[in-house]
Amino acid sequence: MKPRILLVDDEENILKQLRWALEPDYEILIAQDEYEAKRIFEIMGPAVVTIDLSLTPGNSQDLSGLRLLEYFLTQAPSTRIIVITGSSDEASSLQAVRLGAFDYYSKPIRLDELKVMIKRAFHIHQLHQRIQQSYPGSAEGFHGMIGKSKSMQEIFRFIERIAASDVSVLIAGENGTGKKLVAHAIHNLSQRKDNPFAAVNCGASPEHSLESELFGHERGAFFGAYAQKRGKLELAHTGTLFLDEISKLTPALQVKMLRFLKNRKIERVGGTQTIDLDVRIIAATNHDLLENNVFDKDLYYRLKLVPLPPLRERKEDIIPLAHYFVKKLCRGRRSPPIMLSPEAEGALLMHPWAGNIRELENLISRAVVLSSHSVLKPSDLGFALNSIPTDVNLKFAKKAIEADFIKKALSKNNGIVSRAAKDLGISRVNLYELMDRYNIQIQEFKISRSSERQQMKTGEVL
């Protein structure tokens, strides 16, 4: 099956010319207005689209093409869109690139040049698809957790095994490692998945309030207890109770919780009636509970331990997580797709991640919201421009250095590929392949369009 391309232009002659040139290699879809383009796109889902910025005959100021660009990228962010503009539309072309266009081309159209650009667009789309496929299930991961590292794969398997039993669980890990996600995964994989899941943050309430929140109270049990209240243990009956920051439980509450785990009975604060409950306990902590002998050892050993490694010890997961958050945030904001540059990936890999996955998500979120670039660089992520990864693996170090050399050569030569290739000591074909690999966009390095057109006459631009 031929690759599918949608051509959007209000000029019938141009469409006929493009169809004639591209039909041997591609399945051609054609639209002459905004409505028809949307209809065809929704039905056929082409990988590559060319759009004329102005789709109103005789009105060069019409920018309905920009609306289509935003619409297509919102519906399918991986679509590669080439914007075709008039010679005086450089500002609009740059705006299109900022919105997420793959590239832009100025009329008059030279078919051999446009063919190269379209071929590259399909190539980049295929690379993007292969990247997505290289992280199986990465769209949502394992119950919302992304992890291809050996340590996380072992934890996923352990969660599946422990969920099938009914033992009480202790999830141990630093802040931001995903303890709540693990708790939800255990519950959702268990036979209790259709029953209540209640949560209590043990560090958020004073002792008397926490006791009432957990065990409930009778009317008049203390000042302000004007009515009977069921606690979270009762509300979680037949389901799961998640105790976050269990290290904050006082010794008295530790004893009461241990008693419940032994006999599955409670009494409300101020009450005498014994209440039988069927509740699974899942707890979480970011502290060593046996340190300083402040936590009840009997209670500790009744909880099956699930240790979560910090992000700095699972470097294989950093880049998949970063890509996941970028994609998730772009989809949530209905914005054009954004990618990470090799230098940004290197900076992410060298960062110590004291805040773990939560810190990574917050950093990516800030960059996606504040950056106007379609490719995020270290500076967009808040890292110093001269940061050099010192403990990343050789593959990523080589990738960052190679991409940096290419960008410097392109910048020095104002985006003229033939000259940059000569400086780098490689062929133009090899340079184009490397630019594809590292998602380096040529328009970032080109000089003004008027100067470029003059150089095109001498055959120097490409």
**Overall helicity:** 40-55%
Count of helical stretches: 18
CATH superfamily of the largest domain: P-loop containing nucleotide triphosphate hydrolases
- Strand arrangement within the widest β-sheet reads 2-1-3-4-5
Query: What's the count of strands?
Result: 14
* CATH T-level topology of the largest domain: Rossmann fold
The CATH class designation of the largest domain is Alpha Beta
Major sheet characteristics: 5 strands, parallel
Distance between the termini: 31 Å
| Unreliable residue stretches | 134-139, 388-394, 448-462
**Shape estimate:** elongated
Keywords, separated by commas or semicolons:
462 residues, alpha/beta, Rossmann fold, Helicase, Ruva Protein, domain 3, 5-stranded parallel beta sheet, 18 helices, disordered C terminus
Report on the structure:
This protein has 462 residues and is an alpha/beta fold. 45% of the residues lie in helices and 12% in strands. The protein is built from 18 helices and 14 strands. It has helices spanning 12-22, 34-44, 64-75, 90-99, 111-133, 150-164, 179-189, 207-215, 232-235, 251-263, 297-301, 318-333, 342-350, 356-370, 394-412, 417-424, 428-437, 449-457; strands at residues 4-8, 27-31, 48-52, 80-85, 103-106, 169-172, 197-201, 240-244, 265-266, 275-276, 280-285, 304-307, 339-340, 375-376. The chain has a five-stranded parallel β-sheet with strand order 2-1-3-4-5, with helices on both faces. It starts with a strand and ends in a 5-residue tail after the last helix.
